[in-house]
Amino acid sequence: MTDQTTQSDRSDQTTQTDRPHPHTRPEPVVELQPAALESVGEVTNLAEKLFEVHGWLRGQLDRVRDEAEAYLAEHAGTGAPVGLDLQIRRHCLAFCQSLHFHHTGEDGVFPGLAQGYPHLREPIERLIAEHRVVDRIRGELERLSADLATADPDLFRAELDRMSRELNAHLDFEEESLIPVLSQIPFPPPVPAE
After folding, report:
1. Residue 141 near residue 164 (C-beta atoms within 8 A)
2. What does DSSP assign to residue 184?
3. What is the pTM of this model?
């Protein structure tokens, strides 16, 4: 079978499939930034990986807070409705999605960790309960940033502060509780022999 399509035909096909449908809006693209943290170097165990991920999450939350503070300070006293801007919303939603993904992953791993290390059962139960608290705050941040024009900036700021307090306390407790065990578990895990 020979290819009878001409270069011109291929070009037309490509441009037709690359064009968005006229009634759809493209989804915004958010670029998550690396946090300005001291590098742990090559990650060789789960404790180092946990520090790396937690440091990144802390950095992203700080970035959203800094952007919100700068925006709100710039618009303070103008008499115009402040709301939130699209960049704050995008970064907030990207942070919230990353945090949710991280905690969902931990919720799947923690029961096995508690089974293998029974002395971690109580701290892990507490960590899972704290995930629910942080998740409620995450949901509130997403709800507040859903409508940029009517978002209450003072309430958004208060929820960011609450997220910062709860998340940092949670991450500190998690590190304190799990690091001794996680430092003994290699990362990436070894590939099982066949």
Report:
1. no
2. T
3. 0.75
